[in-house]
Amino acid sequence: MTRKFSLILLTFLMASFMSFAQQIQMPQASPSAKIIQKVGLTDVSVDYSRPSTKGRKIFGELVPFGQVWRTGANNATVLTFSTDVTVGGQPVPAGSYALYSIPGKSEWTIILSKKTELWGAMGYQQSDDLVRFVVPASKTSKKYETFEIAFNNFTDNSAVVSMKWETTRVDFKIQTEVDPIVMAEIKKLVIDTQSTDPALLFQAASYYFTNSKDLNQAYAWVKASTDSDPKYWTVHLRAKIELALGLKTEALQSATKSKEMAQKENNPDYIALNERLIKTIK
Fold first, then answer.
1. What is the pLDDT of residues 164-218, one digit of tens each?
2. How would you classify the pairing of strands 129-152 and 158-176?
3. Which of 7, 78, 179, 261 gives the lowest tally of CB atoms within 10 Å of its CB?
4. Torsion sign across C-alpha atoms 197, 202, 207, 209
5. Strand partners, 107
6. Mapped to the 3 state alphabet, what secondary structure does the chain carry?
């Protein structure tokens, strides 16, 4: 009897477990999203959920002014940086952080918290903040039905994070370290080894030229590169550096050569670039 009762109980428990384990798949009210963006040499990711307006008044009502908001829906929004960065003008070590905010009518407080595992803002404590800073809030020209986080206004070492919902937009800037890393690579791969690799020499010369560093050194590298393995894009850089150094005759010769090489390779972009450069030289 006991054995029979045990079997019945086990069958009942298994049936109950299966009924709980089975779930109906339905669309999320606030779909999850993940953005991975390269900023300079840093990988930046944003994990967040995207609530929609659905006819509701958002800021000042659904999301009260002056209170900590999860900056999305469901779990806390999480920002992850692969290297040390600067956010809102403040240093932030590589790692993951919860993105909270305190919305206001004309400005928001942006918060990066060291505690990333909370459900929304439940359990949030200011003592867990890594940084907080204030940014202006502006009005958008169109309505955003669904909350959106995006990257824009890129430079070689920075990008702006834009958050838009309803008719409100808030931006903050992420800055990354680029120059020290690139210069260390150039020193290691080009200077210390006295490299003769045309590709490496071209890259080093291009970086020096673009970032207004030692033009004479850039010229030495690009000359060595183009003398050993000329390409229309490397010769074009040589022409630009020669012009910057005031070597107009040499620059004209290099630009003309680069144009001829680009014509043979049927590259209209570099044909046009060289034509414009030649006009500048003349």
1. 999 999 999 999 999 999 999 999 999 999 999 999 999 999 999 999 999 999 9
2. antiparallel
3. 7
4. positive
5. 136
6. CHHHHHHHHHHHHHHHHHHHHCCCCCCCCCCEEEEEEEECCEEEEEEEECCECCCCCCECCCECCCCCECCCCCCCEEEEECCCEEECCEEECCEEEEEEEECCCCEEEEEEECCCCCCCCCCCCHHHEEEEEEEEEEEEEEEEEEEEEEEECCCCCEEEEEEEEEEEEEEEEEEECCHHHHHHHHHHHHHCCCCCCHHHHHHHHHHHHHCCCCHHHHHHHHHHHHHHCCCHHHHHHHHHHHHHCCCHHHHHHHHHHHHHHHHHCCCHHHHHHHHHHHHHHC
The two tokens of residue 253 are 């010769």
Residues across the chain: 282
